Amino acid sequence: MNDAFAPSDRYRQGMATRRAVLGDNHVDRAQSTSTDFDRPFQELITEAAWGHVWSRPTWTKRERSIVTIALLAALGQDEEVAMHVRATANTGATRDDICEALLHVAIYAGVPAANHAIKIVKQVFAEMDAGEAA
Question: Strand, coil or helix: what is 61?
Fold first, then answer.
């Protein structure tokens, strides 16, 4: 694989946004487990998702967080739902926001998708609450 990656301004912005949303621990863990095989993918999502989309000024991180959780729930992307629910600690999306988003998922993407996402979200909230209490 090509090791000659030179970070662009968009990549640097994406990394800053990714860290602001997901937290340093998550990003550091993702980078430390990256291999030659998946490094191009990590670079792509950092530049495209985080540098292009998440860094746009039109919506707040809270708004992007709500939409992202709804989309991931509708698509059945369980691990990503959990990750983005944990990220709400950094984005400002509230539990009420997530509840409303999942009600939309139920109507527009199906009750089973919303029901499954609610199960995941409740588990993540319990983990977050346990961490806050510790």
Answer: helix
Place of tokens 């967080």: 65
* 5 — pLDDT class (breaks 50, 70, 90): confident
Length in residues, the chain: 134
The type of residue at 123 is: Q
pLDDT of 92 > 60? The answer is: yes
pLDDT of residue 133: 57
- Token pair, residue 2, equals 């090509």
Nearest residue to 112 (alpha-carbon basis) of 62, 66, 78: 78
Instruction: Please give the full DSSP string across 42-57, using - where no structure is assigned.
Output: HHHHIIIIIIIITT-S
**pLDDT tens per residue, range 111-131:** 999 999 999 999 999 999 999
User: Residue 9 class from Cβ within 10 Å (0-12 exposed, 13-18 middle, 19+ buried)?
Assistant: exposed
Phi-psi domain of 92 (left: phi exceeds 0; alpha: psi -120 through 50; beta: other) = left
Catalogue all structural domains in the chain, each as residue range(s) with its CATH number.
8-58 (no CATH), 59-134 (1.20.1290.10)
Residue 41: C-alpha distances to residues 12, 31, 100 (Å): 15, 11, 32
Q: Which of 69, 75, 56, 63 is nearest to 17 (CA)?
A: 56
